[in-house]
Amino acid sequence: MNAMQPRLFDQLVAKGVIDEHGINDRPKARTCRGCGADTIVAWRDGILDPVAVDPIALTPLGELQALTAGRETFQHWGGATGGLDTRRPRIIALHPAGTHPAPVRPEHRCGSPPPDHVPARRTDTHDTPPF
Predict the structure, then answer these.
(1) What distance in Å separates the CA atoms of residue 116 and residue 64, rounded to the nearest whole number?
(2) Tens digits of residue pLDDT in 67-121
(3) Cβ–Cβ under 8 Å, residues 56 and 106
(4) What's the CA angle centered on 42, arms 40 and 45, to 5 degrees?
(5) Residues 97, 62: contact at Cβ < 8 Å?
(6) pTM of this prediction?
(7) Most buried by CB count within 10 Å: which residue of 9, 69, 86, 92?
(8) Which residues pair with 47 in a beta bridge?
(9) DSSP helix, strand, coil percent of the chain (3-state; round to 5)
(10) Is 62 exposed, middle or buried (0-12, 13-18, 19+ CB in 10 A)?
């Protein structure tokens, strides 16, 4: 390892570009240290407060289930300037989960069952319709 790398890391932390775990406002795939589940981690609302979310896209029912279980939900914006924005009641009412191209994801809780989510498209079916 180059002697310059630790110094650069310390400077980036000091300037608030990343936190001490190397997390910033751009969502990144990570493995949960507590349960080994796949998660997405970024700063909540672009502020130095990391949050981990499950990598599933919620339906309106799934968002309701997550919220009633005490889990926050986040809009996951993509692209180079993407992030995880906290869903507030007004936004939830105006734009239910699944009605916007940016998916809604639940806060990660180790051991929690996944809420209702948009199922992945099946590609392994070989059904032949009777025509």
Answers:
(1) 9
(2) 999 999 999 887 555 788 999 999 999 999 988 888 999 999 998 877 877 665 5
(3) yes
(4) 125
(5) yes
(6) 0.72
(7) 92
(8) none
(9) 20, 25, 55
(10) buried
